[in-house]
Write the structure tokens for this entry.
Amino acid sequence: MEIVVVGRHTEVADRFRRHVEDKLSKVTQLAPAARRVDVEVTRENNPRLSEVRERVELTVHDKGPVIRAEAAADDRFGALDIALDKLTERLRRSRDRRKDHRRRANGVLPSVDVRPYDEVAAAEATAETSAPVALAEPGDAVEEQLGDSPVVIRRKLHHAEPMTVDDAVYQMEMVGHDFFLFISKETARPSAVYRRRGWTYGVIELDSTVGGVEPVTELT
């Protein structure tokens, strides 16, 4: 399994890289098919945010959807530990879900656990600028300044495929976001599932369908 460590607005020392490799060696126990883990370290230079100045984001690339977790603390070692705890829990849920699918194939229908996490990552904002840079491949991302303002917009291209609302909620939980964009398998419409209060979720659909996708009225 490949481990890629990068720093944004900060340098990453070899000592921390070795620490990351040692910590993430346990990922293969829960995700034996994982190909790569991306580790992004960000440092916040605002003195008012000193208690959360170091942020670590972990992204596991497996055969299925990516699984992501992030955390912030006053030092990157602590942030890594917190993020790894979240990641481990999500990997366990992903593994259990795969087992559930195998049981379902054998005629056993287990219940679906969609309990929310106490802490979730902030959703990535996507928007168009007056002269957007073309994103060619899923995973491509670009940051652009909004006109003459200090506002920076980050755009990222994601792979989309038809799925049920249940699958969309599951993938939202796996990446730790408050919302998830998808194509509804039932209606063939671009949709977004989002977190509400408690254990409740909402779904927004656009009033247009995606070409080449046929609605599925009966799901098994």
